[in-house]
Design goal:
The chain has 5 helices and 2 strands. The protein is of the alpha+beta class and 114 residues long. The longest helix is centred in the N-terminal third of the chain and has 10 residues.
């Protein structure tokens, strides 16, 4: 029996779901110290690739997004534009994902309710 139901991501971290282009733009707007001079090199600091060797290397990819998401506008923008049906953590999530349960680690979470 085949079930063709839409998928739900029940545990997606907001700081791990930023579009690299948006992260780049917001970091520049907020004067966040950049580890790269261009978007392509910047992506290496926030996108987890298949050759990730450890959980520590994985968690390092969350550092810049957390620095960027320190105000209501950045949090709201990040929540509105999760990477289509993919995330920076995983570049090939199935397109059948229709709903996400986002987790926000910043103390500004209540700002999203205003």
């Amino acid at each position: 029996m085949k079930y063709d139901f839409p998928k739900i991501d029940l545990h997606l971290h907001l700081d791990g779901s930023m579009l690299p282009e948006s992260a780049w733009e917001m970091a520049k707007e907020r004067n966040v110290k950049m580890p790269a001079d261009n978007l392509e090199d910047f992506k290496k600091f926030i996108v987890v690739t298949a050759d990730c060797r450890s959980v520590n290397e994985y968690l390092e990819k969350f550092e810049l997004p957390l620095q960027i998401m320190q105000d209501k506008e950045a949090i709201s923008r990040t929540a509105r534009e999760p990477r289509g049906l993919c995330t920076p953590r995983y570049d090939s999530l199935p397109s059948s994902i229709r709903e996400r349960s986002l987790r926000n680690p910043t103390p500004l979470t209540p700002c999203l309710r205003e």
